[in-house]
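Changelog excerpt

This revision adds worked examples to the README so contributors can see how folded entries look when concatenated. The first example is reproduced verbatim below.
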Amino acid sequence: LILYGILFIIVENYNKHREPQVGELSDLTYKIAVIIGCFQVLALIPGTSRSGATIIGAMILGTSRFVAAEYSFFLSIPVMFGASFLKLVKYGFHYTGMEVTILVVGMLVAFIVSIVAIKFLLGYIKKNDFKAFGVYRIVLGIVVAAYFLFVKYFLLNQHLLPERRYLLHICNFSRCRLNVRLCVCIQPLLRDYKYV
């Protein structure tokens, strides 16, 4: 989180006095499109945003902010469909009527919210740069790192059962994505264990 926040600020400062080579999505060449797609691989690094990596990559390659963000959103479509398909294959296609209804409603709500969020972000990008987003990532990274350090070094060593210690080791920086969702998932599990 922190590293990519700093990168957003550096790239914005670098591009401040540079004219974008690609100002429209239609001007994007296949070569640049493929290279931007390769930046998605950076999302495998813990704490890395897929859209953040592709936007930074596109801006380094000379696209405008708007084109970088718009293409990043288009690039997410096959990734999201692929990830959803893999989950369906992994968990099977055996759903009850209620589960199918919940799934469809969830998909529709997510689609509507994402359209509104993308429209807002693209409107914001036309008038502003990504420095505020970079600062947000740095602050969030510090907060998340502080939380993990608190969980790992304070709670882990405070009279806990070995099973609870093992469970908290999941938060190890080298093996997990640094985001709040992981802690939200782990907290209910921790409540099942009792202090010695």
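The second example, added in the same revision:
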Amino acid sequence: LVREGVIICSGTTIGENSVVGHGVVLRRGVRIGRDTVISHNTTIEREVVIGDNVRISALTHLTVACLLEDDVEIGARVVTINDNELRWRRADQVLKPPIFRRGCRVGSGVTVLSGIEVGERTLVGAGAVVTRNLPANVVAYGVPAYVSSTYIFLFILFGAFLEQAGMISLFNDFAMGTVGHTRGGPAKVSVISSGL
């Protein structure tokens, strides 16, 4: 289904059961897989390859030669860049588009710089600026985007160390002795022991 106001350039192919929203621009040689939805006012530059069952939200820009594998989800107003030097290239110079691996999800307002690979089933939080490759199965967010699983691992490791050293019991006993007997004690104990 191709909605009103879509511009489709030569060599573009659209797979079975795919939907292209109002005002979308599909430049030369774009390939769209089956069961894919491209929302309104999205621009897809030349030679972009989009897999099956992909969702691209409104006002997104996919730069020249991006690759989106199957089951990728792209939020609204996502911007991709294929040249970090901000200059026009000669025809013989190579651009480095981002690659979005199978099942990754990119939140609204994200910017993905040139040559970046977003790993399989990775989640990029809204508003992030992705400046380096992201491995598979992680959560990344921020400006620039950082992988949160590293922090989660360190937090769990530190917690295990504290537990083995008996510090968790000390924190809980301290909180119980300080506020456990007061009104709202259990909630206060939880806040104090977690804060420690």
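Reviewer comment on example two: The helical segments are 148-164, 167-179, 185-195. The chain is about 20% helix and 20% strand.
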